[in-house]
Amino acid sequence: MSSHILKNEELTLSFSDAGAELRAITDTKSGKDYLWSGDPAYWNRTSPILFPIVGSLKNKSYTYNNKTYSLSQHGFARDMEFKVTEKKEDSITFLLEATEETLKVYPFFFQLLIHYTLNARTITVAWEVKNTGKDTMYFSIGAHPAFLCPLSKEDKQSDYYFAFDSKAPITLTKISENGLALKNAPVILPTDDGLLPITPHLFDEDALVIENNQYHAVSFLTPDKKPYVTVAFDAPLFGLWSPAKKNAPFICVEPWYGRCDSEDFTGTLENREWGNTLEAGKIFQTSYTITIG
């Protein structure tokens, strides 16, 4: 397993071949960290790639072509070793391809490329999914970066805020104890002119799932309401998550193209909500950005 560095005068980034995971975002001058360290006392990951599913499957399985397959939550990409296909001064590209093992749980030939580009204080994370097989491919993909909150050990997380790029109230899709969506129980969460205080019990019932293109940018604000991390995306839905009832010192902002099954889901892989369809030989491309400060 190898690690890789991208560095400029503003930021220093660290990556691992394992999961093509972004492992650190550090201010080059001050040494201040912005990404969670992966301490297993709370959560041993930092920014996993979710593929070929996002979230949990109903009964931990799915059906395709009259055959049943099992996949663990968020899929297998985060637990596999990628290879670096290109490294430049300001960018790095990782590749994962279908293997005999992946075909046993996901019967599609694919290439998954993860491109990271560093420009001043902005990181662009671009995803490229290629259908290298002969059949139409069905998949989901998502991000799961964990940012420090509070940013300083002297602060309390409950003094921090989220800021959204719309002032509208948030409509949440609730998640059940078994990790499935409760479609008939939406929750309306008001904001204060687009600001949401990060209260102590905000994540007691697991992730906040926000669907239907309600927002496309989320910022973390310090107690004096200054932004220090902004995640911007085109994804139609996203999650906000921190381990339930653990008072963990980080929160994830997760742009998604897909999500967990609903509790009442009875369909096949092709019918999963927010899923993506990719014809043979075609390419799916999208990206999101992380801006520090």
Give the SSE map.
Blueprint: E1 3-7, E2 11-16, E3 21-27, E4 49-50, E5 61-64, E6 67-70, E7 83-87, E8 91-97, H1 100-105, E9 110-119, E10 122-131, E11 137-139, E12 141-143, E13 146-148, E14 161-164, E15 170-175, E16 181-189, E17 195-197, E18 208-210, E19 217-221, E20 227-233, E21 237-241, E22 250-257, E23 276-278, E24 283-292
GO biological process, one term: carbohydrate metabolic process
Protein name: Galactose mutarotase
Organism: Anaerocolumna xylanovorans DSM 12503
What attributes characterize this protein structure?
GH-type_carb-bd, Beta-galactosidase, Chain A, domain 5, 24 strands, isomerase activity, 293 residues, eight-stranded antiparallel β-sheet
Give a description of the structure.
It is a single chain. This protein is an all-beta fold. The protein has one domain: Beta-galactosidase, Chain A, domain 5 (Distorted Sandwich). It has one helix spanning 100-105; strands at residues 3-7, 11-16, 21-27, 49-50, 61-64, 67-70, 83-87, 91-97, 110-119, 122-131, 137-139, 141-143, 146-148, 161-164, 170-175, 181-189, 195-197, 208-210, 217-221, 227-233, 237-241, 250-257, 276-278, 283-292. The strands form 5 sheets. It has a 9-stranded antiparallel sheet, with no helix packed on it. The longest helix has 6 residues, at 100-105. The model has no long low-confidence stretch (mean pLDDT 96). This is Galactose mutarotase. GO terms for molecular function: carbohydrate binding; isomerase activity. Pfam families: Aldose_epim (PF01263). InterPro entries: Aldose_1/G6P_1-epimerase (IPR008183), Gal_mutarotase_sf_dom (IPR011013), GH-type_carb-bd (IPR014718), LacX (IPR037481). It comes from Anaerocolumna xylanovorans DSM 12503.
